[in-house]
Write a structure and sequence with these properties.
The chain is mainly alpha-helical. Helices cover about 55% and strands about 5% of the residues. The protein has helices at about 1-5, 10-25, 30-35, 35-45, 50-65, 75-80, 85-95, 105-115, 125-135, 140-150, 170-175, 195-210, 215-220, 225-240, 255-260; strands at about 215, 245, 250.
């Protein structure tokens, strides 16, 4: 579950190091739930989209309190957890527990649209097609094969010449416009990261990982942010439950209480 949450909108190469550190620090949901969110946010360094860290922390608390510290083994219960949507619940159910459910992400969406149907697929259509493809045995291995096929061959710029299913791929055989870019689960181009609020939020959190800071210190440490923008972003981070503003200082959420107890 940790790896699937970290892999949302993040390349595998960026996840391996943080995942290893996270699992070493929190070997169980309860150990994560019992820690302050500030500890989780520090381990999230380099991954971005920090609301995922809070959602994972909230999910760990729910697992501790409602599931006796054990990750649920079925899709319905997994979907109840914060931050766990359809893809992640199916992936955890399939890869961790062998449940016979299809896993449909960007990579699989391209394979379904091109190789199987040669047409643009809506969300529901993609799910139906994926589930009809499932074998009776070794569903987890099949799901992984579909993911790998999309990641290594049926990419945004497809490698049809070396693709192992090119001889049966409907798009390769029939031709026509590429059906993948507009299909369900296929990622749309993201907005520019450089200079975006997302980048500045990440910089603010990176500075706060070192220690609590005043607004004045943040203005000095964070590139390209004025007082108004900094105040707006801090307010948004507070609303997201990622930081807390106590007196003159801004803290990672949960750190103020930890430091208060330490004193």
């Amino acid at each position: 579950m940790v790896s699937e949450v970290m892999l949302q909108q993040t390349q595998t190469s960026r996840v391996l190091g943080p995942w290893t550190r996270f699992i070493e620090t929190f070997p169980s949901p309860t150990s994560c739930a019992d820690a302050p969110l500030s500890d989780v946010l520090r381990l999230w360094s380099g991954l971005g989209y920090h609301r995922r860290a809070k959602a994972l922390h909230d999910a760990a608390k729910m697992i501790r309190d409602e599931f006796a510290g054990e990750v649920p083994n079925n899709v319905a219960d997994l979907r109840r957890l914060p931050g766990i949507g359809e893809y992640t619940s199916n992936a955890v159910a399939s890869f961790a527990f062998g449940r016979p459910v299809a896993v449909v992400d960007t990579n699989v969406g391209r394979v379904l649209a091109r190789a199987l149907t040669n047409r643009t697929l809506k969300d529901r259509e993609a799910r139906v097609e994926a589930n009809e493809l499932l074998p009776r045995m070794n569903v987890a291995s099949f799901n992984q094969a579909m993911l790998d096929l999309g990641a290594q061959f049926c990419t945004s710029k497809p490698r049809c010449a070396t693709c192992p299913v090119s001889r049966t791929c409907k798009w390769n055989l029939e031709g026509g416009p590429d059906p993948a870019p507009r299909s369900a689960s296929v990622s749309r181009p993201q907005s520019t990261f450089q200079g975006s609020d997302r980048q500045v939020r990440g910089q603010v959190l990176a500075v706060l990982r070192e220690k609590p800071q005043s607004i004045r210190e943040l203005l000095v440490r964070v590139d390209g942010v004025d007082a108004q923008r900094c105040a707006t972003l801090i307010a948004a981070l507070v609303a997201d439950g990622l930081v807390e503003h106590r007196g003159p200082l801004v803290y990672l959420f949960g750190e103020w209480r930890t430091l208060s107890f330490a004193r």
